[in-house]
């Protein structure tokens, strides 16, 4: 697996595309002319739409491309660049872009917020163009009916802000990073700190608009329940271009409680004992309470030059401080939560704090959620696992020792239970419901741009992942689509496309993979909408 295998996948792939690409223009400038002509014609525009089509020679091209790159690993001179970037301003531009890309026989990648951990929205091994949705970012909030329509190119921060502008007691259950895009996030499931009370983002979607492979703009009624099911967690990029979601807003109290508590292996209550108890409490406690647990190897406070593991509990409680202190005093005494550890804030301030726990102290305002300019450009690797049986104290001791040995990579435990246990595993493509205690994220972020550093940290991720095998779900070893991880399998769209798709598909979707394949085969039999981990078409019985 891994490095060598990915290289061989690319090599095979190139052979395949060479023969079929005779008809496809592979240079940026020849494609530009024909694509622009097609798009202008398709959209019946009176002037050429050169303002929304960027060729590589356009001086703005690097900026447009880089604006929504959120992983520095895919921001190098070696990274494959799209032949064109199309930035639709209207729904019918999206329709035209699909029709013209198909006519030109060139692959499209769809980008909304660009947070894909493996860069799948703007990198490809075959010649491709990017349909970049950042201009389609309108949000309409209807507080009377408690619904909102949000376009794919909007960010979570913008959504939270627009809800807060109109109501202080409504919110939406989605991710905690404000720059994440709606298009990728919601079509991949979407979870955040209200998951135990309200489920995933997809559990609160009531309609959607999608442009299909024929260029039709469809809504729930016209796309039908099968396709509407598939795009709520199956990944949008396999089925079409999602233009908007209609979502149900959820009630939030005027004041919520947030807190953060830390322990190490050197504190009186050790991180090990804390995590043993956390596993009993976090997935079973009051569903208004979400306690994320972060585990990180850090320098020792006691032994000079020594290393320890720090466990941090970061929480949101949809209620008051007295109540959560009382609940946890009984259920989670090892946490030792005191009222002084808690802050009662508005829901929107809790969003700011979850993004950056210094934010409120530094006078952070809800307007920060509208900021799209991310100055930091880090290198990221993420992986995921699901835990169904609590890990013993002995197991945790071994894991902590391993983490110290491996180096930098950390783990994030996100508790399930509550609402997550009540929703059937086939209600949406996202299957990881009842029986899962928590989801684990492997997380390593670095700044050193040298290839050696990248190799080293990718290797750390593989080592820890391998070590965790006995402690996590098996047959299949499950994973979360939005924590995109190419190590678990990739597709080269060749002869074995279906078999390859089954490898990663069964991990992301378990028993729902089969239905996703059926929907895919029905709506996009030629596999026009594809990426390295898209849903494959069922092979025809020849
Ligand atoms: C800093 C950070 C924090 C995160 N926090 C969370 C979190 O709290 N909870 C959580 O659940 N996830 C989280 N994620 C993961 C995130 O949900 C996924 O990366 C998600 O897919 C990002 O959506 P995007 O539109 O920003 O990404 P993109 O890179 O634009 O897209 C991701 C995938 O979706 C496809 N896609 C995008 N837009 C469309 C569209 N309009 N139609 C069809 N397909 C489309 C792309 O082709 C690509 O395959 C986080 C990621 C990062 C980098
Ligand atoms: C990408 O590289 C450019 C310089 O080449 C830099 O300005 C930008 O911040 C980088 N973005 C990311 C996400 O690494
Ligand atoms: C830790 O335990 C020691 C010995 O029992 C005690 O003296 C000390 O006050 C404790 N420290 C804290 C922070 O509770």
Automatic annotation (TrEMBL):
<dbReference type="InterPro" id="IPR016169">
    <property type="entry name" value="FAD-bd_PCMH_sub2"/>
</dbReference>
<protein>
    <recommendedName>
        <fullName>FAD-binding PCMH-type domain-containing protein</fullName>
    </recommendedName>
</protein>
<dbReference type="Pfam" id="PF08031">
    <property type="entry name" value="BBE"/>
</dbReference>
<keyword id="KW-0732">Signal</keyword>
<keyword id="KW-0285">Flavoprotein</keyword>
<feature type="signal peptide">
    <location>
        <begin position="1"/>
        <end position="23"/>
    </location>
</feature>
<dbReference type="InterPro" id="IPR016167">
    <property type="entry name" value="FAD-bd_PCMH_sub1"/>
</dbReference>
<dbReference type="InterPro" id="IPR012951">
    <property type="entry name" value="BBE"/>
</dbReference>
<dbReference type="InterPro" id="IPR016166">
    <property type="entry name" value="FAD-bd_PCMH"/>
</dbReference>
<dbReference type="GO" id="GO:0071949">
    <property type="term" value="F:FAD binding"/>
</dbReference>
<dbReference type="InterPro" id="IPR036318">
    <property type="entry name" value="FAD-bd_PCMH-like_sf"/>
</dbReference>
<dbReference type="GO" id="GO:1901696">
    <property type="term" value="P:cannabinoid biosynthetic process"/>
</dbReference>
<dbReference type="Pfam" id="PF01565">
    <property type="entry name" value="FAD_binding_4"/>
</dbReference>
<keyword id="KW-0274">FAD</keyword>
<feature type="domain" description="FAD-binding PCMH-type">
    <location>
        <begin position="78"/>
        <end position="252"/>
    </location>
</feature>
<dbReference type="GO" id="GO:0016491">
    <property type="term" value="F:oxidoreductase activity"/>
</dbReference>
<keyword id="KW-0325">Glycoprotein</keyword>
<dbReference type="InterPro" id="IPR006094">
    <property type="entry name" value="Oxid_FAD_bind_N"/>
</dbReference>
<keyword id="KW-1015">Disulfide bond</keyword>
<comment type="similarity">
    <text>Belongs to the oxygen-dependent FAD-linked oxidoreductase family.</text>
</comment>
């Amino acid at each position: 697996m891994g490095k060598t295998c990915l290289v061989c996948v690319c090599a095979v792939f190139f052979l395949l595309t060479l023969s079929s690409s005779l008809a496809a223009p592979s240079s940026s400038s020849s494609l530009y002319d024909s694509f622009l002509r097609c798009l202008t014609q398709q959209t019946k525009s009176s002037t050429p739409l050169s303002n929304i089509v960027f060729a590589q020679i356009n001086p703005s091209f690097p900026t447009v491309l880089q604006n929504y790159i959120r992983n520095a690993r895919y921001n190098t001179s070696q990274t494959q660049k799209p032949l064109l970037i199309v930035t639709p301003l209207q729904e019918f531009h999206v329709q035209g872009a699909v029709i013209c890309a198909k006519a030109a026989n060139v692959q499209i990648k769809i980008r909304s917020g660009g947070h894909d951990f493996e860069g799948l929205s703007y990198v490809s091994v075959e010649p491709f163009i990017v349909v970049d949705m950042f201009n389609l970012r309108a949000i309409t909030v209807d507080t009377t009916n408690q619904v909102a329509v949000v376009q794919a190119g909007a960010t979570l921060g913008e959504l939270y802000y627009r809800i807060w502008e109109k109501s202080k007691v409504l919110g939406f259950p989605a991710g905690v990073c404000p720059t994440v895009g709606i298009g990728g996030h919601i079509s991949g499931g979407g979870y955040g700190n209200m998951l135990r009370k309200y489920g995933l983002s997809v559990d609160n979607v009531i309609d959607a608009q999608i442009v299909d492979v024929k260029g039709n703009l469809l809504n729930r009624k016209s796309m039908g329940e099968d396709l509407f099911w598939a795009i709520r967690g199956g990944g949008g990029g396999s089925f079409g271009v999602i233009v908007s979601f209609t979502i149900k807003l959820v009630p939030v109290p005027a004041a919520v409680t947030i807190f953060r508590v830390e322990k190490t292996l050197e504190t009186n209550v050790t991180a090990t004992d804390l995590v043993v108890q956390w596993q009993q409490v976090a997935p079973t406690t009051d569903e208004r309470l979400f306690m994320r647990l972060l585990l990180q190897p850090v320098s020792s406070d006691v032994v000079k030059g020594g290393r320890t593991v720090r466990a941090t509990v970061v929480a949101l409680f949809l209620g008051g401080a007295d109540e959560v202190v009382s609940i946890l005093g009984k259920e989670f005494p090892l946490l030792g939560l005191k009222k002084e550890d808690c802050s009662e804030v508005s829901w929107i301030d809790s969003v700011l704090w979850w993004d950056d726990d210094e934010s409120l102290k530094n006078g952070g305002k809800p307007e920060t959620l509208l900021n799209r300019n991310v100055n930091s450009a880090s290198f990221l690797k993420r992986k995921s696992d699901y835990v169904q049986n609590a890990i013993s104290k002995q197991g945790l001791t071994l894991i902590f020792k391993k983490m110290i040995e491996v180096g930098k990579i950390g783990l994030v435990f996100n508790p399930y239970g509550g609402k997550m246990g009540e929703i059937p595993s086939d209600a949406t493509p996202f299957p990881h419901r009842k029986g899962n205690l928590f989801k684990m994220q492997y997380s390593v972020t670095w700044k050193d741009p040298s290839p050696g550093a990248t190799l080293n940290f990718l290797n750390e991720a593989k080592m820890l992942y391998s070590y965790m095998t006995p402690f996590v779900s098996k047959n299949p070893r499950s994973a979360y689509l939005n924590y995109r991880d190419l190590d678990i399998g990739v597709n080269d769209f060749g002869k074995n496309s279906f078999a390859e798709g089954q490898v990663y598909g069964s991990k992301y979707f378990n028993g729902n993979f089969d239905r996703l394949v059926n929907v895919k085969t029905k709506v996009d039999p030629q596999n026009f909408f594809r990426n390295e981990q898209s849903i494959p078409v069922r092979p025809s019985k020849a």
